[in-house]
Amino acid sequence: MNTGETQTAPPAPVCRAADGAMSIRKAGKIYDPEGVHVEALKDCSLEIGAGEFVAIVGPSGCGKSTLLNTIAGFDGLTSGEILLDGEPLATPEKDPSPGPDRVVVFQHGALFPWKTVLENVTYGPVVQGVMSEEEANKRAQEMLSRVGLNDIETSYPGQLSSGMQRRVEIIRALINNPKVLLLDEPFRAMDTVTKSASHQYLLELYDATGKTIFFITHDLEEAIFLADKVLVMTTRPGFIKKTLQVNLPRPRQYSMLASEEFLSLKAQLVEAVHEEAVKAFEAGEREMA
Ligand SMILES: Nc1ncnc2c1ncn2[C@@H]1O[C@H](COP(=O)(O)OP(=O)(O)OP(=O)(O)O)[C@@H](O)[C@H]1O
């Protein structure tokens, strides 16, 4: 029956990738450059479901990037293991090896400055022989237009704002169809407006691809707004101290920032991170004394 009222379309279901599940079991990492023993991770365990968006927070120096680097294959573990879809990805016996199934976007841009946006995005799949240049161009154009970047294909990175550059990098990562997207504080240095636009584009891409996302941040509101699960790491040596499940529906809306659920999660997160920050500060004071 047509009541004459405006009907709101139900939110689009979020597809989740069928792969990209990770098990991190008692992961340990000791850096020992020239005999300086730094225990960055100790017995760090967590489970990430296929297609889950996980944010990780914790005091500076607690081991967040170390964990990301071991997942990415940039560095090895000294104990424990990391499995990707049940297959060993990192163990103390295994040489670290990056792969196209895990792609990383950092805070500081890593686009080739001498290549256009289109050339940057298509470089990976073309060089790896995964797509022809024509296929890669078509796919890149579709993906760029999804994040409002359809008219900058021939621009160079230096001509783009930081927000646009980060969007291009995320598209460049996703065109490789990875199992896991690893993001190390990608929006850290951005102003509030650019940051909120970047959240919107990332969420749109997540809702469209359902890729597993591992997202490091210091911004607690950002963590809750984006993720399905927020993990709090202890001060070094880092392990997971607390897991907060975020049950806000998707697609996420900015109005949710004022919801009871959001505010309650934020209060819990602030308390957990504050405790660890105080410990990190005190440990620093002891080291200085
Ligand atoms: N290559 C390295 N050699 C020696 N120590 C290292 C190395 N990389 C990191 N560390 C140390 O390991 C600890 C964890 O560093 P990591 O960068 O993982 O922390 P983080 O939580 O990502 O910090 P931040 O939030 O400040 O980026 C720190 O004490 C750091 O100084």
TrEMBL record:
SUPFAM superfamilies: P-loop containing nucleoside triphosphate hydrolases
InterPro entries named in the record: AAA+_ATPase, ABC_transporter-like_ATP-bd, ABC_transporter-like_CS, ABC_transporter_ATP-bind, P-loop_NTPase
Superkingdom classification of source: Bacteria
GO MF term set: ATP binding; ATP hydrolysis activity
Annotated PROSITE patterns: ABC_TRANSPORTER_1 (PS00211), ABC_TRANSPORTER_2 (PS50893)
Keywords: ATP-binding, Nucleotide-binding, Transport
Residues covered by the ABC transporter domain: 24-260
Protein name as catalogued: ABC transporter ATP-binding protein
The species this protein was found in: Desulfoferula mesophila
